[in-house]
Hints:
The complex is a heterodimer of chains A (306) and B (483). Chain A is mainly alpha-helical. Chain A has helices at 11-45, 62-68, 71-103, 108-119, 126-136, 143-150, 164-172, 182-192, 196-204, 209-220, 222-238, 241-247, 258-267, 272-298.
Amino acid sequence: MTTATATGRRPSYYINRYLPWILLAPVMIHLIVFRYIPTFSAFYYSLTNWNGIKAAKFVGLRNYTDLFTDYVFLDGLRNMVIYTSIRVVLLIGFAFLAAELVFSFKSASVRTFWKIVFVIPLVVPVSVVYLLWGFIFEPQSGLLNTLLNSVGLGAYANQWLGTSATALYSIAFVQFPFVAGLSFLVFISALEGIPGDVLDACKVEGCGRFRRVWSVDVPMLRGSLIFIAVLIVLGGIQTIEPQLILTRGGPGTATESPGFYVYRAAFQYSDFGLAAAAGVIMVFVGLVFSFYTVRARYKGAYDVDL
Amino acid sequence: MNIHKTLLLASAAAATLATATPSMAQTALSVYWNSLYSTTSEPISAPAMNALLEEYKKLKPDVTVNSIDNMSDVNAYQAWLTTRFAGGDQPDIAWQQFYQRNAEGKDLWLPLNDYLEKPNPYVPEGQPGHDRWADLFFPNVLAQIRAGDGNWYQINTDWVETGFYTNKKLLDDNGVDPTQWKTWGDMIQSCKDLRAKDIQPIGVFMTPEWSTYQWLDDIIITGAWADQIQSWYLPQYSSEYLPWRQLNQEEFAKAVKEGKFTTTDPRFDTYLQLTKDVAENCLVEGFAGIAQYDDVYKLFNDGTVAMAWLGSWSAPGLAELPFEVGSTYIPPFGPNDSPYEINKSSYRVGGPSSSGQLGLTAITAERGTADAAIDLLMFLTVPANYQKIADVVEGNIPMIQGVKPSPAAAGFQDIAQLPERGLTDPIGRLTQQFGTEHNRLFQSFMIGELSADDLKAQYQRALDRAVQDLCDEKSEEWKWCNE
């Protein structure tokens, strides 16, 4: 028999009230130690000339001045915008299209089959994907040029990663046709979550497939679309795998990115202050984008009650 | 006797034994041996090193050696090492390129001068090294790896060379004979002949960071400035063993500051022309999109390129190819190629930039592990001991007196006799930032995306900025900075 405490409340009251906090405490500690403290300390180090070994010396905004007068960083920002814009359109477009096609199957088992087909490739590490695409883009014996030559389009064969004109677009096209991934799963789940009576009402009103997609599916998936867009943009801001595995930022600065700039400044130049400053700018860009995107998500939304 | 008393007596006995046994103070050493200790990337040298360390353990049971596995991507290793230094968790003994280690100096590395003068107790009496450890190493090697501050921060147990590996059948079938190359121009003509038959001549890769292109650049820049290089030597770095040697960071920086190396000099135009000639005629198409050394190896393996410029360390693996592999080298620059060439010889790119570049991190002095680390290195460098490593790491040329090279390495000994390049890789010439900028600008120039005039303007700015940064950092050591 539980007994009441001096306050008149049973111990179970306190357990129920504080247990979530207790269970979440390790997670909170982990986040504070490995996420928040490094993030805030980056702000501090961005104002110093720390090289990772000697004591940090305050240099004010010099690192930021250096960044915004360094054409490599500025080209990296430009590349980030282009790369991310392409990826948002392609990843969302193809994944949404695939989700709509799978959603159109009446049979649940057929839908499940296609979901499995698109989910299994998720287990392949990103680094392997990029290595594979390195082979695809190889000028002499790569799959892409070989395919183009075999169908009579040899004139379009190119040094995909070897010229500035094509390098950035080539890495943006890695993972084509972009259907294997989180985006597809989110979209198909959201489509399956559309209330049946909404779809029935649409049918009764005589809307065809395309009209249904435009007038029902897209508004109802607004939250999912924006969620995926935010993830893709944040990923694009931090992107470093294509540079590490395929291009090292070249040719010239054609595939430079802020993420790779941070890596190089920290681990090759041992200029942790400069790397921290670049990181702070990336955080700022990400925060601004996320804020305005999430605000736009809720403005005039059909799928949430505010 | 009841159970409690039994347990009490047993505990007392154990405690007595524990305190009575003399405790052996254990010294733990962590060592990054580079490819001298590799469990996954070829050559698999870990078994040979482990066997040697087992022998060492019998002699020094109080020393535990933790060998860190080889990281084949040198850029990944540099990132790892930088992180370790930042965290105060650096290995006791670590590999590093000699020019970078010398640039970092005492901040990160322990001077070995006093240790080199000590006897090596593991070398039998009467043999080089017994009375003085430094006698185990060749004087020209020691001269080349000595830092500008007069310190040695590493020992070099081996040496590498680079050269052209050739697909003999592919060249023979297409009428190209590298043994007939007398000058650089002959090589360029052979490249044109191969291209005319849709054959990719030479495999080289190029990125804004380190790449095999840098070896090419070292030879070209030397050929374009050969008549000037010796006039830039500073007396404090000169050695009777090296009448012609590589400029170090200070000497090159001073030459830049004094306007002796400048983009307005006609030699720079020769430099650019030679670079353009080789890029347009010889290098495999798409070289600027190849990111790794192994990709060049693959292009040679599958017959995509007729020749590949690789290191001597690749020789053992090439023996297994389905076609006969030959070797050759870049020929000298003739008067029509570079009017400034004086040596009538090509230049070797190899040297101490090898696997066996081992130094102690400065923190070993604080940790108290410096003596133990030196003792381990002395044991390793006994000729009979190092021979066991040299027999496995076949592509490296051993640089310890009395250690014989493998057949694969012996083939590079002719190349090792050539004069060395006048300047080191771009990433080692001034600052790392300058090296990256150099690679970036030259990459764009070589693929036709940057004009010579634009390159010269940007390159001069990069030179001046790098020298300014170095002078800001080293003005107390480099007195000429303030002149």
